[in-house]
Amino acid sequence: MTATVSARGLTHRFGPLDVLGGVDLEIEAGALLALAGPSGSGKSTLLEITGGLREQSGGLVEVNGSADAAGRLRGCAWMPQRDCLLPWYSALDNASLALVNQGKSRREARKSAAERFEHFGLEGFETARPDELSGGMRQRVAFIRTLLSAKPVLLLDEPLAALDAITRAELQEWLTPVLRESGATVLLVTHDVEEAIYLADRVTVLSPRPGRSIATIDGMRGSPGRRDEVVSSPAFNRKREELLGLLRSDQARGAAR
């Protein structure tokens, strides 16, 4: 099942601090929208509100037609920057945790998770503890856990930010077919311009705090060829300059004054 996500005039305040100053976005079912913008522009807060973990101060946000927080929470799975794997659990038990929390038996949950390990390049590491895994492998375990929640909307908050550049590039390439096969609608927060363009159907730019949507451009999700070929192509370079120009624009800087 896939779902649409939309926001209209979304605002939020923490006491006297305006964090979101009017965000509009639209994600079609099965699409991936990346959020780009400076630190403090409210990107993570926007994810929390979308996922029903926080109520907005104003405006409207809907997940598959549900505007209330409880309805949004039922439709969304959250993956934070840190993998949050339990150090005393094996990789397989960490991956199956979402199903256990939904009431599945441990045996049934482990069986469902184990079926993903080969496809995710983790075969043979089912019994490994998190401290025995590389950063990229830990993130793959976390992705299995997130996907097994079977929620139609995935909220990814800088999921690759803690990785080195080479591993991050490898996982960007690996993620492309994984997310397509899942059929999920995805809202991705990232500070990495290349990551936003490469992974997303569209990229929405937020201004400095209070964050507001100032532009949306097309990404290059699903471009043919290896990642290295795509990101070095003239078309990708033009798109990169377009996005960087928006992030440096007078409109973006002016919102902070």
The level of helicity is 25-40%
Number of domains: 1
The fourth-level CATH homologous superfamily is P-loop containing nucleotide triphosphate hydrolases
Largest sheet: 9 strands, mixed
Beta-strand content estimate:
15-25%
Based on the structure given, which CATH architecture is correct? 3-Layer(aba) Sandwich
Strand order of the largest sheet: 4-1-2-9-8-3-7-6-5
The total count of helices amounts to: 11
**CA(first)-CA(last) distance:** 43 Å
Number of strands: 9
The CATH class assignment is: Alpha Beta
| Morphology | globular
CATH fold call: Rossmann fold
Provide a descriptive summary of the structure in words.
With 257 residues, the protein is α/β, with parallel strands linked by helices. The protein has a single domain, classed as P-loop containing nucleotide triphosphate hydrolases (Rossmann fold), CATH 3.40.50. The protein is 39% helix and 23% strand. The protein contains 11 helices and 9 strands. A 9-stranded mixed β-sheet has the order 4-1-2-9-8-3-7-6-5, sandwiched between helices. The mean pLDDT is 89.
What is the compact description of this entry?
This protein is α/β, with parallel strands linked by helices and 257 residues long. Helix content is 39%, strand content 23%. It has a single domain (5-83, 152-254), classed as Rossmann fold (3-Layer(aba) Sandwich), CATH 3.40.50.
